[in-house]
Target: DUF1996 domain-containing protein
Amino acid sequence: MVLSKAALLSLAALPATQAFFLIPCWPLSTQRLDPIVYPGEPASHLHSIVGGKAFAPVMDYNTTQTSECTTCMVSKDKSNYWVASLFHQNGDSFELVPQHGSASLYYLNEKTRLGSGEKMEPLPVGLRMLAGDPEKRSGSQAFEDQAINYKCLNYKGTPTDSKGFPDQNCPDGLRAEVTFPSCWDGVNLDSDDHQSHMAYPTVTFEAGACPSTHPHHLVTVKMEVIFKTFDFPFSGKNPFVWSTGDPTGFGLHADLLMGWDYDLLSRAVEQCDNPSGRIQDCAPFAGLIPESQVYLDPKTCEIDSYVNEDYSGKLSKLPGCNTIEFGPGRASKQNCADGASLKGDWSDYTGGIAGAVNSIGNHISSAVAGIFPGSGAAPTGAPAQFYEKPAGDAAPAPEAAKAVPSVHADANGNVVTDWVYVTETVTVTGAAPASTGGWNDAAKRDAEEHIHKHRGHARRSF
Model:
């Protein structure tokens, strides 16, 4: 996208820091399951999943609400979020790279992200969306490509950013970052490609007015996951590959299935403007943050695999039919069970977007109960087809943010959450940046460098 002079002026006026609230989410499961893209069957590739325990081969909003627990640190966020799993390739063998600590789900809600006359809205009940493209093997200046980023973590030096996998050793892990589109068409909770009902804003991929085709400006969600790449040898070039068979990194993608208590999320989007970003400083979350049981012992909330498949140890191939393709053209689309099958009977799922709306609620209760006795039963019915704003929902006044957080792992294997105040000055001179990880990344880099010198509180081990 080529930015006009007006767009560049708008870009220069964007906030240098941001208001947000950050939800840490521990791993829930790793399995070849994707109820958005591959409902009722094994997914084409392995995923690393966080969020509500009701995650299943087919599910809707009602399903999420039956979760007995969630790995996210606000108990009424029963959403699920997932990314492709990362593998280390050594010759002809592949080994799963574990997630390091909690994933970070940023809800970026400062009002200066909005265009003139826009109101920031919460995610609608039952929203499902995909950010990124698993078949990409090269990047571009399109916002959907700029919305992915990698940070090579090095707490004894300077972290570096890239759009594809970095060809360098990352001593403190590799962080994958995906920003979801925030402009909604106001009608569809999903679409055939799981993307067309959403769009990125018109100034940057995370700020500016929404296009007229997608006029509802939602809170921006950004997902960050750190992987333990430091546990594997590095010999001068990138040895890692996504479970899709992507060795370039340009196919980074993430999925979101909304499972929030809607009223709670609405209040959080309007009220959680503390510059710390801490959920403890957000009044609507009072009493909803676990006593630290899940945070200190993440395995108190996890699920067994629905897929009959073993991906442990060293594998001779990636799970599924995912061959290594370097590009730069698009990779071939892969989708085969490759001998894997789902536990339970999902045969009455009707498939497609209509099937997702009409049949899931009636189906999932008996299917889950048959596989995992004692699991909560999902109520019948489907999520709302249209989003309705709560009555009397007035637009809040713009708020200025003053800080950014860092959630990371140190060299000793501890997951560290630090909160620091930073100041950033953004100057735009004649052209938009060709490749950025977001207009807030300079502040985050400053924060990480500051944290390296002054860290040590809010520390948790995984």
Confidence is low (pLDDT under 50) at residues 1-17, 354-462.
